Amino acid sequence: MPQERGATEGGRVAQRRTPFGDRARYWFDSTLTRGASALVGWMALLCLAVVVPASAVLVWTDPDAPASPADRLAKVWQLTGETLRLGGATGPPLRVTMSVLLALVALLYVSTLVGLITTALTDRLTALRRGRSTVLEQGHAVVLGWSEQVFTVVSELVAAGANQPRTAVAVLADRDKTEMEEALSTKVGPVGRTRLICRSGPTTDPSVLTLTSPATAGVVLVLPHDEPDADAEVVKTLLALRAALAGEATRPPVVAAVRDDRYRLAACLAAGPDGVVLESDTVTARLIVQAARRPGLSLVHQELLDFAGDEFYLITEPALAGLPFGDALLSYPTSSVVGIMRGATPLLNPPPQTPIAPGDQLVVISRDDDTARLDDCAESVEKAAMASGPATPTRPERVLLLGWNRRAPLIIDQLRRRARPGSAVDVVADGDAATVRQVSETEAHSGTDLTLTLHHGDVTRPETLRRLDVHSYDSLIVLGQDPAPEQPPDDPDNRTLVTLLLLRQLEEATGRELPLVTELIDDRNRALAPIGPGADVIISGKLIGLLMAQISQNRHLAAVFEELFSADGTGVRLRPAGDYVLPGCETSFATVVAAARQRGECAIGYRSHDEASTSPDYGVRINPPKSERRRWAAGDEVVVVGRD
């Protein structure tokens, strides 16, 4: 068999024939490994290889060049020296050597000076890129921390300041400034006349907090990040903010959020008397339960909380002083009255006979603070179209909870508070020890009216869902797992989307729509969710961000929202339209408001059944004009502020 090239022969290694180009390249690479001196040498040789021949061509083609070869070579040297800034002097060798030496010294000096200047400029630009300069603004909004909520908060602050000549939002987080700017630019979009400023550094360092000039800010918002120690970080940030503002005559109002109610007291103490601290997990759990009992309610909440539509305002109306609250409900043609602010206490949906005191403010939903104009709408009421039957009775409910996370015990607690005897919650989750322990602890506090049962199973597997009679439940709630410490915060959405896809397959196979509510972390995944038109999607971080932005613009609304989203207080509800007006009857919205007043409620809008699957509003209409007329179908719903 022929000997292979490179094999051993008689104890000797056969030599391979290496191409000259490869050997030359290898030798060149080897010289470069010797360091900067080799690199400088190669650069000098390369320059000489180009400049010397070019100088020779210029000299030999010059008609005025010297005749003798020696003089021409001297001219070539002189031209080369001038080109390379090496002096180029001619004459005795000592003169030439000294000329080259002086040129090298000058070159070294200039190069060192340029290097020092370049380094100083680079350091300064790097510091600017990292966001280490102090913000020089007045009345701006300061956002401390980074999470998915930051995009919602910044977007709403930009929208709130759209009609202002000059507004600014400063974001401070322990992230790269360029990365923050790119992320905000991508997810927030155009900011109009609002200046968006990013600063980089830890929010728990008072010296770093001063970069955002909190003493001159109009409001400071503190966001919890996505790590397990988020609440402790919020408290520490609030303490750092208090230290940074020590000695200041005035302090800006503070709006913060914690996930665990155990940290709320500490956060309130650190925020000070002007601070507002929200419990994000508790509020989210309440919204999920409300949406589970009446799908579509999350759309109403989002419409009420964002600055793009109608919002809550506090107005003073001396003309209504002394009149009963029920008269105010039909006194604004383009605004909806929902309560009274008496001092610092909100009275949402008080009894219609409650008198309006001279110092009271009205809580209204309006397009803007100057669109609430007084005008009697009683003549638009058609009593013949009002329904007179009893309200739709409540009954025991069966809820299927797919998945388990830290908000699941809060959700079950909310279900327990209004559960009718015979109600049941079935939980399907992985049977790890932590989940079993948490379910057992929750079951011990679920009461006698609510039965809690744990079923072991993976909600992302088809066989798990097929074993369940999903259509026998009054509502389905899909929860994602809590993200692991090293896991990206939006990873739980991946499992949730798989579960939703399997449920959608069951809907299509049976032709029956499921009463579904799901929680997602990232708002971008809402467009990917394979759900039917009747399903509700709760973007937990977005709703909390909307709530924080609203309170940041009017901190007096914090008490209103606290009452509106409380577990046992007055809240936003969806009721069958047949409880207020006769089905198939065409009448004005003022008639609906009058019918709701008779039931002790404040009607603020409706949801059209025919448009429930049409984006972007999905049939939700908040604060329609009292004179608006429409034909009310049996499947329509009325949005009211009231109690269960």
From TrEMBL:
GO cellular component: endomembrane system
Domain RCK C-terminal residues, every copy: 297-380
Subcellular location(s) of the protein: Endomembrane system
Membrane topology summary: Multi-pass membrane protein
InterPro entries: CASTOR/POLLUX/SYM8-like, CASTOR/POLLUX/SYM8_dom, NAD(P)-bd_dom_sf, RCK_C, RCK_C_sf
SUPFAM superfamilies in UniProt: NAD(P)-binding Rossmann-fold domains, TrkA C-terminal domain-like
BP-aspect Gene Ontology terms: potassium ion transport
PROSITE patterns: RCK_C
GO molecular function: monoatomic cation transmembrane transporter activity
Transmembrane spans: 39-60, 100-122
Annotated keywords: Ion channel, Ion transport, Lipoprotein, Membrane, Transmembrane, Transmembrane helix, Transport
Entry keyword Membrane: yes
PANTHER family, alphabetized: ION CHANNEL POLLUX-RELATED
The protein, known as: Lipoprotein
Organism: Streptomyces viridochromogenes (strain DSM 40736 / JCM 4977 / BCRC 1201 / Tue 494)
Top-level taxonomy: Bacteria, Bacillati, Actinomycetota, Actinomycetes, Kitasatosporales
